[in-house]
């Protein structure tokens, strides 16, 4: 009786190695392993997506400031006394714009301050003004309000990228100046400013005096129509404070400012740690409060060439160079690659020679791209003497690099066409050439086009081979042909990333964004072609 129960179980069913407790435990273990694997896979996908989102968000947030440019509107004197209509090319347009700017700040008299003030506007102002006058001669003969681009540091400050500036806060005590300009003394009605100076990095010295060095935050007091930068503060009798300061904007009078009539602005970033001085900040804020500064779409970035000045640098030259280079690459790589694939797949005999060719093609697809650059340097430039940094040479180098990709993709597409297509064509009397070009090739063309576009997208993102043939040269002019000096977007990004100016950081991210847009478009076209024309056999 006991044996029957042990053989058939308590309910009389036979016990098997697939249904006993050990088997159930193993089954649960497999289920747990499968669940863990699924969760690990989902976690890997989520982690990759997180890094992708982080990368794109970083690029986009850094690129957005480059899409806008700040301009200041100035009354430009284009009267006959300043501009001779018969000698437009001999006029110093930069000086005319700088005079209009300095006229806005008549209290700026020192040579150093005037040079600093003139540096607020871009060095390319004269070029833009000359072009606009040539396009619209009606500007001549009087004074016109003309918007000129600001210098890169001024532009970055107005975008909030150079200095951490707090809002204006009213001072709850009286402020009395000793004079209206130069180095002056300010008398504050209470000692609250001492604690404020201590909290913003002022150095405490003898007799309770606090000194605001260039390593401390800047304290600017605005009242009586002017602005004073505090340099030191000392306690005085009756709980008052005497501060020494330098007038940045002249005061209207020496009358005391009552409580709430003076305002304090704190620039948290020390002057020694930023590329813009307190004077420039005050001048920019004055222009902005007067409604003379506006932010516009940065057409300079999209429609001009390279420049050493960040506010004048654009990507149009690199975009045109990339377009010309890709035309050469496509014109060479596509017909040669497809022809080679057709021959190897449809006509070539299967022997050691074709096997060796196929192996070498597969190996070339994995060769580092800089090797093709060395080949282009040795053959196209040194041996044939072709023009350096030209799209025709860059296109030929990238065509050599893209050829293996196109050949492999084209052969795979031709191989995917069912043999029955070939047999049916041959059966009704078509020749081998007719069979391939009238029947097989049209059916394989969607896959060939997809592989070609992906290969071109890969070529568009290459930098190393083009550095070897001189396309890293600084090219200001927009290329007008295949033999003109040019650069392409990846190389332009490489050069901008190496520049120390802060303005190029945003330009670099914006150029990366443009390159990504081109790559996404090219890949999207490949996907659309594949889905539109692909046939399932």
Describe this structure in words.
- The chain is of the alpha+beta class and 537 residues long.
- It contains 18 helices and twelve strands.
- It has helices at 2-8, 21-63, 93-102, 111-118, 125-135, 152-158, 192-199, 278-289, 299-303, 316-347, 352-364, 369-383, 391-416, 419-427, 432-460, 464-468, 489-498, 503-533; strands at 68-77, 143-149, 169-170, 175-177, 183-188, 203-204, 210-211, 218-223, 226-235, 241-249, 263-267, 293-297.
- Strands 3, 4, 5, 6, 7, 8, 9, 10 and 11 form a nine-stranded antiparallel sheet that branches.
- A hairpin with a 5-residue loop joins strand 6 (203-204) and strand 7.
- Helix 10 packs parallel to helix 13 and helix 15 packs antiparallel against helix 18 (503-533).
- The longest helix is centred in the first third of the chain and has 43 residues, at 21-63.
- It is elongated, with a radius of gyration of 36 Å.
- Residues 1-10 have low confidence and may be disordered.
């Amino acid at each position: 009786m006991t044996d029957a129960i042990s053989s058939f179980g308590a309910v009389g069913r036979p016990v098997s190695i697939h249904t006993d407790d050990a088997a159930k435990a193993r089954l649960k273990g497999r289920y747990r392993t499968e669940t863990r694997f699924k969760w690990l896979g989902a976690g890997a996908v989520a982690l990759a997506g997180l890094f992708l989102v982080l990368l794109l968000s970083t690029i986009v947030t850094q690129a957005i400031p480059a899409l806008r440019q700040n301009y200041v509107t100035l009354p430009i004197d284009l009267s006959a006394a300043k501009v001779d209509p018969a000698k437009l090319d001999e006029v110093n347009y930069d000086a005319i714009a700088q005079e209009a700017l300095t006229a806005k700040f008549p209290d700026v008299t020192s040579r150093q301050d005037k040079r600093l003030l003139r540096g607020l506007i871009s060095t390319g102002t004269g070029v833009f003004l000359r072009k606009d006058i040539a396009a619209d001669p009606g500007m001549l003969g009087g004074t016109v309000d003309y918007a000129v681009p600001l210098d890169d540091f001024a532009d970055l400050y107005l975008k909030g990228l150079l200095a951490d500036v707090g809002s204006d806060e009213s001072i709850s005590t009286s402020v009395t100046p000793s004079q209206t300009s130069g180095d002056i003394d300010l008398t504050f009605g209470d000692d609250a400013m001492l604690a404020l100076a201590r909290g913003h990095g002022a150095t405490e010295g003898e007799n309770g005096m606090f000194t605001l060095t260039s390593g401390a935050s800047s304290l600017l007091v605005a009242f009586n129509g002017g602005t004073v930068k505090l340099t030191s503060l000392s306690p005085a009798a009756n709980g008052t404070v005497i501060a020494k300061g330098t007038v940045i904007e002249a005061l209207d009078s020496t009358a005391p400012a009552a409580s709430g009539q003076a305002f304090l602005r704190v620039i948290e970033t020390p002057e020694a740690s930023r590329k813009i001085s307190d004077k420039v900040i005050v001048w920019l804020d004055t222009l902005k409060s007067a409604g003379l500064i506006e932010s516009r779409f940065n057409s300079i970035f999209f429609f001009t060439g390279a420049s050493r000045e960040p506010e004048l640098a654009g990507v149009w030259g690199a975009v045109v160079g990339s377009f010309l280079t890709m035309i050469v690459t496509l014109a060479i790589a596509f017909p040669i690659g497809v022809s080679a694939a057709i021959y190897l797949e449809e006509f070539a005999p299967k022997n050691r020679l074709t096997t060796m060719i196929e192996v070498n093609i597969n190996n070339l697809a994995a060769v580092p791209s800089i090797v093709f650059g060395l080949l282009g340097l040795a053959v196209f430039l040194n041996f044939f003497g072709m023009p350096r940094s030209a799209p025709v040479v860059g296109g030929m180098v990238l065509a050599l690099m893209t050829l293996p990709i196109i050949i492999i993709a084209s052969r795979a597409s031709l191989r995917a066409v069912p043999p029955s297509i070939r047999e049916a064509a041959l059966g009704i009397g078509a020749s081998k050439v007719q069979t391939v070009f009238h029947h097989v090739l049209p059916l394989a063309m969607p896959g060939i086009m997809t592989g070609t576009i992906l290969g071109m997208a890969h070529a568009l993102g290459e930098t190393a081979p083009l550095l070897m043939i001189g396309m890293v040269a600084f090219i200001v002019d927009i290329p007008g042909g295949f033999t003109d000096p040019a650069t392409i977007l990846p190389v332009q990004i490489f050069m901008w990333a190496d520049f120390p100016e802060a303005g190029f950081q945003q330009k670099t991210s914006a150029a990366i964004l443009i390159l990504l847009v081109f790559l996404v478009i090219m890949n999207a076209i490949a996907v659309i072609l594949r889905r539109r024309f692909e046939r399932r056999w």
